[in-house]
Amino acid sequence: MTILNPGGQGRNEYLKIVTNALDKTDADIIAVSAGFDNHEEDWGGLLKTEDYTYMGKRVRETALRNHGGCFGILEGGYNHAVLGKNVLAFIEGLSG
Predict the structure, then answer these.
(1) CA nearest to 51, candidates 38, 66, 68, 70
(2) Long-range contacts of 2-8 (CB under 8 A, 24+ apart)
């Protein structure tokens, strides 16, 4: 089992960490603790809404490549003005 909690100094580094981890994994089940508090309009101030779509899509592609499945569990996200659109963006990416 591999656990990834991406950090990084900026948006591009964060996405690169996620992408690299997905590229390297052979997991057949990918579970995402889907937190949205790193959005640019939430306390984390880092990611854009389209980044959640991108990460969801990458998770799905990785699961399919590994002949497995994936799912997400809603975690943080405290700015209710943007939380819904970020969750929807992630689900759209995850569902293809």
Answers:
(1) 38
(2) 2/27
pTM: 0.94
Strand partners, 72: 32
Nearest to 91 by CA among 75, 65, 67, 72: 72
Within a domain: 84: yes
For 43-96, how does the pLDDT look when each residue is reduced to its tens digit (9 = 90+)? 999 999 999 999 999 999 999 999 999 999 999 999 999 999 999 999 999 998
Is 43 in contact with 77 (CB distance < 8 Å)? no
Q: How many domains does the chain have?
A: 1
Number of C-beta neighbours around residue 55 at 10 A: 24
Q: Domain range holding 26?
A: 11-95
Give CA–CA dist 32/4, Å, rounded: 10
Residue 16 lies in a domain: yes
> Does any domain span residue 51?
yes
